[in-house]
Design goal:
Layout (H helix, E strand, L loop, with lengths): L26 H7 L4 H12 L4 E7 L5 H6 L3 E8 L2 H9 L3 E4 L12 E7 L7 H11 E18 L5 H11 L12 H7 L1 E15 L1 H9 L2 H9 L4 H12 L8 E14 L2
Parallel strand pairs: 1-2, 1-4, 2-3, 4-5
Antiparallel strand pairs: 5-7, 6-7
Helix pairs in contact: 1-8, 8-10
Length: 267
């Protein structure tokens, strides 16, 4: 099995080129506008691993704690890890335990967790280093779960929305991230064997306001603003003007595609 990310991106990217733009992002808006689909993922994990409940679980790249909250539904003790202090402040507001650290240098004891989860974040990491750290903190037969989800530009009932999506991507290109597939040999070298790889879909309903709010949290927008080529105000105005025709009948439903890969410690 290989594990990659968005199907519309390909080609190797050097570690020096990748900057995790979520470290400086607006945690409040991220928490407010990002779809909460994560329980779907962990329900599938419970099925794949035949484990209704885990003892200790770690959520690497936990962000504002959406994934950590869902993980707490299948684990007795849950710890979130993220490098962004603003993101972690939101995790703590949920009443969840978390630690500020990078995925490549976890300040956690070895052989502690039964499950390690990395959601919507693996492509920002030095992936071999993150895998080694995940294996170090896992117990002998522990599980590693890596999942992602992306906005496809598919709107129920409107076949013309992909045209808008393409213009959006042209105006605000996706910034570099590690999207090239990481093969079985990399996981085996870190001490994992592959168990299953699945694709899934989920839907989310937006108003015009919440869709714009969601899109404004994407790194496409963050990168455009950081480069100085656009202001957040101009991007917001463009979105409000061009998206309004799609919301003449009220709320709209959009399709997300996700990937889930499950590995087990092999030694």
């Amino acid at each position: 099995m290989t594990f990659g990310h968005r199907p519309d991106q390909s080609g190797p990217v050097s570690a020096a080129m990748v900057e995790n733009l979520f470290l400086g992002s607006d945690a409040a808006n991220y928490d407010r506008y990002r779809p909460y689909f994560h329980p779907l993922v962990f329900a599938r994990v419970a099925q794949v691993t035949s484990t209704a409940r885990f003892s200790h679980a770690l959520d690497i790249g936990c962000g504002t704690g959406q994934s950590t909250q869902a993980l707490a539904g299948v684990a007795d003790v849950v710890v979130g890890v993220d490098a962004s202090a603003p993101m972690l402040s939101r995790t703590r507001q949920r009443g969840l335990s978390c630690v500020r650290a990078s995925a490549e240098a976890l300040p956690l004891t070895s052989d502690t967790f039964d499950l390690v989860s990395i959601g919507l974040a693996f492509h920002w990491f030095d992936r071999p280093a993150a895998l080694r750290e995940a294996r170090r903190v896992l117990r002998g037969n522990g599980w590693l779960v890596i999942f992602n989800s992306w906005f496809t530009g598919t709107m129920r009932g409107r076949d013309d929305f992909p045209t808008w999506q393409q213009e959006y991507l042209q105006r605000y290109p996706t910034p570099p991230r590690h999207v090239e597939p990481l093969g079985d040999d990399a996981f085996a070298e870190a001490g994992f064997r592959d168990v299953v790889s699945q694709r899934f879909e989920h839907e989310h309903e937006f108003t015009l306001e919440t869709l714009i709010g969601y899109l404004m949290t994407q790194t496409n927008v963050t990168a455009a603003v950081a480069s100085g080529s656009h202001s957040s105000e101009s991007i917001y105005r463009w979105m409000a003007t061009t998206l309004e025709p799609f919301f003449t009948s009220g709320n709209a439903t959009f399709v997300y595609v996700g990937s889930l890969a499950v590995y087990q410690a092999s030694r």
